[in-house]
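stuck on this:

***
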Amino acid sequence: MSPLQRLFVIRLVIFAIGAIGTLLLIISFFFRRPRVDADGSRFSLGRGILYFVLVWLGYCGLALLLAGWNATFHQHPVDLRLTFAVLALLAWAGYWFALAGSPYLRISSVYRHIGLALLSFAALCFSTFLWLLFAINIYGA
């Protein structure tokens, strides 16, 4: 195993541990009894921001690692469009989860539900633009 491959495996393990921790945190939210505060929120604003940042770091990190793996270790890069689409769908659901439980953005009407879906989609678009910008600057076009 070359040093470049060893470095890639170490980075992949670190991001995988972070992603598993994030998933366990989100899953633990669903397995406990749903607590709703007086204002209708499921968790505090600080926890919502933490979930949002964890989803952002997990999505950008995993997508950047996949892009790097694809560009570095293949003579002809593999078509990973379906993998990136599934990863983006999971990130969109994670953003929606983080925004929907916050005390200021709780769902109370159909219009707010549509607004949260659009806001989480905007966060997904910004995150995708950001990791693509990093991937192009690091690995080239």
Notes: The chain has one domain: 3-139. The mean pLDDT is 77. The two ends are 26 Å apart (CA to CA).
